[in-house]
Write a structure and sequence with these properties.
Blueprint lengths: L2 H11 L5 H15 L3 E3 L1 H11 L6 H12 L17 H9 L4 E3 L6
Parallel strand pairs: 1-2
């Protein structure tokens, strides 16, 4: 469900809806605009280290993170810690760290 569709639906139906139905609509648009990104504790810690406030400017920090996630392609590392994630998921996690769900701790 797109944001404008959800907004219109809520405006048109809010009086007849219960809380569970409203939460369902909000959950639908959350999945559309901020889907959950599952990663290990190790993956999240590395991402967080690049996002630490004041450490680097944002452009430099993201570029360094992006290069680090692709270092294995350049022969600089044997494997990529983020092989299980798409570039879109990495971007989502970078922009919206609250969308990260830590799972399978210690396993990549």
């Amino acid at each position: 469900m797109k944001f404008d569709d959800a907004r219109r639906y809520l405006i048109d139906n809010l009086e007849d809806m219960n809380l569970v139905e409203v939460i369902g609509v909000l959950s639908d648009i959350r999945e559309e605009y901020s889907p959950t990104v599952e990663m290990t504790k190790e993956q999240k810690q590395l991402l967080d280290s690049y996002r630490e406030p004041g450490l680097f400017d944002v452009d430099y920090a993201f570029n360094a993170f992006y290069e680090d996630t692709h270092a294995h392609r350049l022969g600089m590392r044997e494997h990529n810690l983020y092989d299980n994630l798409t570039e879109m998921q990495l971007m989502q996690a970078w922009l919206y760290p609250e969308s990260i769900k830590v799972t399978n701790e210690g396993q990549v």
